[in-house]
Design goal:
The complex is a heterodimer. Chain A is mainly α. Chain A has 17 helices and three strands. Chain B is of the alpha+beta class. Chain B folds into three domains: 45 residues; 189 residues, Penicillin-binding protein 2a (Domain 2) (Alpha-Beta Complex); 336 residues, Beta-lactamase. Classes of the chains: A mainly alpha, B alpha+beta.
Chain lengths: 410, 611
């Protein structure tokens, strides 16, 4: 114990990380209370209080680990998460069309959430390895493999949204590790082109020429740039051809996914009601426990993915902006930490975690604001649910730990 | 190069720019919604809004195999309360006008918290008088309304009750176990086909959208109903039941306790499913009068009990074919093996009797004369494990897999069963009784019919099923129900020996002569299940025509005596009705030639005695 304890000193805990987290957790509990207090779903608030206590304990526990501990267990924890993902595929139970749950008593656990952090650790360790080079095709393939394995298992559950986050983390971490911009462009462009080609032919044609020009500017090789353009064009036309040959109902489903207002009363219902909730909040909001959209439950399942509507309706722009500011503080501070840390593993892990939170915040709030398609991505620290909440607290613990132990490496 | 780029200043700035721009997008959008579009959203939230109200689909119908409509829907009026608009003070008035249980209203309204503008169903089957009371008092009854639901109508009134099952309001327990689709007050299938095919019959709920004012009151249908999601009607079922045979069987068993299950041995289709006494399904459609319910519940003949698939009786001698076929297949005996029957069997000082002294007889004669001693001796050679193995092949001691929600496995005891039940205190004498289908062994009439069908068709087990086709009303597609054939590892030769024995039971000097039908050859086996201290149950299992079986049947009549005198004639009458129809010649039983007399038959030393 004696060798472990010196790690922990209250003075070394970074307050600029801790403060926004505490504020967000409290704001989350208040919001869940508001969304559930006048109905028989109040149990959800009580459960979340339990998760909050457990989450704080977990975060503190994480701080007590010796320096380099998370580097040491990176691959092991990754392996455990993979085994859990396999088990949940076989034995998992289905909640809301997604089979990725283990039931323990009245609580559901999703291994896919924990896999986010373990994948960050494993990829961080691999990329920080002195033998790993960002210019080696082999190493890049290995890195893709590290992320691809949990992604495939989660995709099979099937959970599209959670799977997506793995690639965002991947891009952020290889970018931080020094991958060439051309490589990132090559990896990103087919995704952008595919999405745009479904929206409209002009969008994707323009995008294809823009990225190809960028490619030419970076690479200065006209031949390869033209091949790149041809590849992008064929992907775009291929996706468009496939899309136009889909059965009508699948086309509708994708169209509604991209723009929920196309089906205002089924898929678009949540988004429309969420926008009404937020918009009606105005500058100062309607008052705590006074928001008619929240209290009359116009937004289905508001306490999970649509939790942001509650502060935005009841505390208005001031409430919504406060939440956004807390996330801003958290994200910039962790980026700063990543920049300062000299131990590469820690630096990479902090970047992975930063990108994880950024993605969650942007997609989730963007969805409630009617900017982005509805995919089941919870808001960190605030949405109802145990697995992602604990994962977030674990991740924060790891960031704080990395900061506290930064001078303990010889 | 790598050393320079890792987490470089440039990359930090790029990252910071990405974070800043994404958060800026959110901020701008938040500003847009809450400042620019504030007035519009605030008035939407405060004044008119849209509400989603579920619409029930029409439940699928049921037809018999010839396309006659059996189960239909009729509209009925259901009183509803919208919790959001409801005021507790009108509770006494509601009770006064509609004579409803105020506790039900209290419970349903208070637990509707999540969706308080969705009307909850309070009472079904409003009369026209009650409907007009509602209309007259509308202003006094905020939030009270009615909705039109469908309710089951049975075109053939008192029949097929146990097979069809009924529908009723979902119970709190079922609401928990069936999952999110259901709401309190919904109708679900209970028992029988209604329950087994619930997912298929019920259809999919639709949603109607209504504009409501600031107090939550529905003003009009949103967008003239164009946005509504139509409820998808449930699929129709075509049953395998032959209604003529079913009604005939119900008539025969009327006033007795018992069951008849008839199957098509070539595919497992259930032709008749008679459980007697039965009850009138129409009593269960809508509100069931309390006196009707208590009369049904307290009737000592338990009319609601499904005797075809839930009641399990010792199979008695009808079980002997199973012991015989197992011994033949395992090579323990062949057709020429003779076992001596001196008239009784002594085991550990206990005497087990027979109907007579049959002398040295082979398996065919043993079945024909239902010789107990033959099977007492044979079961020892066969042993527990083989009994288990072959019993399970014929789905004895386990479910037949029929498409009905309530089915009993019966009991085929294993060593483990006895160990558990008696510890070390049981002895081999228990096995002796199993050889003749007595003791701790129970089978349902459905199991016995499926077993007989498998013996008749040469060893293929077809899952019994009462639904032939599922007709999807939405896609207009028809799906055939799978009978999941299982080819049993039993040789046709072994089965041929058993079939010959069963033929002789009816047509030789056996106990089943009462099942003879002129114009066709019937094979079968009688059984008498001891039921001390009450009178025995009479069994008969059989099939016809012998060469090309088209019907397999199991009949049991409770506490009525011998299988040969009570159950066999019923089976014969059913077979005649099925094969020759209503106008079948009812003439004397003609003695039939015993086919293929290649196998030497030991002459009888004693008269055939009812087993």
């Amino acid at each position: 114990m004696a060798r472990i304890l010196p790690t922990f000193s209250l003075r070394k805990v970074d307050l600029l990380i801790l403060l926004p987290v505490v504020v967000l957790v409290v704001a989350g509990l208040l919001s869940i209370f508001s969304a559930t207090h006048n109905a028989d779903i109040f149990i959800k608030f009580q459960k979340q209080v339990f998760w909050a206590i457990l989450g704080v304990l977990l975060m503190v526990l994480v701080l007590f680990a010796p320096p380099r501990f998370y580097h040491y267990i990176a691959y092991l924890s990754y392996g455990v998460a993979i085994v859990l993902l396999l088990l949940v595929l076989v034995f998992g139970k289905t909640i809301g069309g997604n089979a990725g749950w283990f039931g323990i008593g009245g609580y559901g656990i999703q291994p896919s959430e924990f896999a986010k952090v373990t994948t960050v650790l494993a990829l961080g360790r691999f990329l920080s390895d002195s033998t790993t080079s960002m210019h080696s095709f082999r190493d890049l393939t290995k890195a893709i493999g590290i992320v691809g394995l949990p992604w495939v298992l989660i995709f099979l559950q099937p959970d599209f949204g959670t799977g997506l986050i793995f690639w965002v983390i991947f891009l952020a971490m290889i970018f931080w590790a020094g991958a060439e911009m051309v490589l990132l462009l090559t990896l990103l462009s087919p995704v952008i082109i595919s999405v745009l080609s479904v929206i409209g032919i002009w969008y994707f044609l323009i995008a294809a020429f823009v990225v190809s020009t960028l490619f030419y500017v970076m690479k200065r090789n006209l031949g390869i740039a033209l091949m790149f353009l041809a590849l992008n064009l064929s992907i775009g036309f291929g996706v468009q051809y496939t899309f136009s040959h889909l059965p009508e109902y699948q086309k509708n489903r994708i169209a509604v996914f991209i723009d929920p207002t196309e089906a205002p009363l089924s898929a678009g219902w949540n988004v429309i009601q969420s926008k009404v909730a937020i918009g009606s909040g105005g500058m100062t909001g309607r008052g705590y426990l006074q928001g008619s959209q929240t209290q009359l439950r116009f937004v289905p399942e508001q306490w999970t993915d649509f939790i942001f509507c509650v502060p935005a309706e009841e505390f208005g722009f001031i409430g919504g902006m406060s939440i956004l500011l807390m996330f801003t503080l958290l994200l910039f501070r962790s980026l700063r930490i990543a920049r300062i840390l000299e131990f590469r593993f820690s630096s990479l892990v902090v970047i992975g975690i930063t990108s994880l939170f950024l993605f969650h915040v942007f997609i989730n709030i963007g969805m409630t604001l009617g900017l982005l398609p509805v995919i089941g991505i919870p808001l960190p620290f605030m949405s109802y649910g145990g697995s992602f909440f604990l994962t977030s607290m674990l991740a924060i613990g790891i960031v704080l730990h990395a900061w506290m132990t930064r001078e303990m490496f010889e | 190069m790598e050393h320079i780029t890792f987490g470089s200043r440039k990359r930090t700035y790029t990252m910071a720019a990405v974070i800043a721009s994404l958060l800026a997008i959110l901020t701008i959008r938040l500003y847009e919604l809450q400042f620019v579009q504030f007035q519009s959203f605030r008035s939407q939230a405060e004044t008119n809004s849209i509400r989603q109200i579920a619409k029930d689909p029409l439940r699928g119908l049921m037809y018999d195999r010839t396309g006659k409509l059996l189960v239909d829907n009729n509209p009925s009026y259901t009183l509803t309360v919208t919790p959001f608009e409801f005021e507790w003070r009108i509770l006494p008035l509601l009770k006064q006008l509609f004579d409803i249980d105020t506790n039900v209203v209290r419970y349903r309204v208070s637990r509707a918290g999540i969706n308080s503008f969705q009307p909850v169903k309070i009472a079904r089957d409003l009369s026209f008088a009650q409907l007009s009371l509602l209309e007259e008092n509308r202003t006094l009854l905020p939030g009270v309304n009615y909705t039109i639901e469908s309710r089951r109508v049975y075109h053939l009134k008192p029949h097929l009750a146990h097979l069809l099952g009924y529908t009723k309001e979902i119970s709190p327990g079922l609401l928990k176990s069936l999952g999110a689709y259901y709401q309190p007050g919904d109708i679900v299938g209970f028992n029988g086909i209604e329950a087994y095919y619930e997912d298929i019959l019920r259809g999919t709920k639709g949603y109607g959208y209504h504009s409501v004012d600031s107090r939550g009151k529905v003003i009009e249908s949103f967008d003239h109903g164009r946005a509504d999601i139509v409820a998808e009607e449930g699929s129709d079922l075509v049953l395998t039941i032959d209604m003529d045979l079913q009604l005939y069987g119900e008539k025969i068993l009327h006033g007795r306790r018992g069951a008849i299950v008839a199957l098509d041995p070539t595919n497992g289709e259930v032709l008749a499913f008679v459980s007697s006494p039965d009850y009138n399904l129409s009593d269960f459609s809508g509100r069931i009068p309390v006196d009707v319910w208590s009369a049904l519940r307290d009737d000592p003949a338990s009319p609601m009990f499904n005797r075809c698939s839930m009641a399990a009786y010792p199979p008695g001698s009808t079980f002997k074919m199973l012991v015989a076929v197992a011994a033949l297949q395992e090579g323990i005996i062949d057709i020429n093996t003779r076992i001596n029957c001196p008239g009784s069997y002594l085991l550990a000082g206990q005497e087990f009797g027979c109907h007579g002294a049959h002398g040295d007889i082979n398996v065919v004669s043993a079945i024909e004369h239902s010789c107990n001693v033959f099977f007492y001796k044979l079961i020892f050679k066969l042993g527990f494990d083989n009994l288990q193995k072959y019993g399970h092949l014929f789905h004895i001691g386990r479910l037949t897999g029929m498409d009905i929600s309530n089915e009993n496995t019966g009991l085929l005891p294993s060593r483990e069963y006895y160990d558990k039940r008696y510890g070390s205190k049981w002895n081999i004498g228990y096995l002796v009784n199993l050889g003749i289908g007595q003791g701790e062994i129970n089978t349902t009439p459905l199991q016995m019919a499926a077993y007989t069908a498998t013996l008749a068709n040469g060893g293929t087990y077809y899952r019994p099923h009462a639904v032939k086709e599922i007709k999807d009303r939405v896609s207009n597609k028809t799906t055939m129900v799978d009978n999941k054939p299982e080819r049993l590892p039993i040789s046709r030769e072994a089965l041929a020996v058993i079939q010959r024995g069963m033929f002789r039971v009816v047509n030789g000097s056996g106990t089943g002569y009462a099942a003879r039908v002129s114009g066709t050859k019937v094979a079968g086996k009688t059984g008498t299940a001891q039921n001390p201290p009450n009178p025995d149950h009479a069994w008969f299992v059989g099939y016809a025509p012998f060469e090309d079986p088209r019907i397999a049947i199991a009949v049991i009549v409770e506490n009525s005596g011998f299988g040969g005198t009570v159950a066999a004639p019923i089976a014969g009458a059913m077979i005649r009705r099925y094969l020759f129809g209503e106008y079948a010649p009812q003439g004397e039983h003609e003695p039939t030639e015993v086919p293929d007399p290649v196998i030497p038959v030991v002459p009888l030393r004693d008269a055939a005695v009812e087993d």
